[in-house]
Design goal:
Length: about 90
């Protein structure tokens, strides 16, 4: 049975105002090896390597640097060799 690392983020974060903010990409940072393939394929440049944090494998994982730029196209998730990205889209009319 395969073991999967828990997702590092949650799709909704609550800012100080109390209203949830939508996060279209979740990164399982413990599975990410920082190869940058997802960053290369991201047309709106919504992803970046985390320059501060290092995961248990010794890599700088990818982070969603610009949630508003993300179009939820899922190209990054399809490119990831480690299946470390999960993509969400807002419901229609939201």
């Amino acid at each position: 049975m395969a073991m999967h690392a828990p997702l590092a983020d949650t799709p909704l974060r609550r800012p100080a105002s109390g209203h949830p903010t939508f996060r279209p990409v979740l990164v399982a940072s413990e599975r990410c090896k920082g190869c940058g393939l997802c960053i290369d394929v991201c047309a709106p440049n919504a992803l970046a390597l985390d320059a501060v944090h290092v995961n248990a494998m010794g890599h700088h994982p990818v982070v969603l640097s610009d949630p508003d730029a993300c179009t939820s196209c899922a190209k990054c998730a399809r490119m990831c060799p480690d299946a470390a990205l999960s993509i969400f889209a807002l419901p229609r009319g939201a």
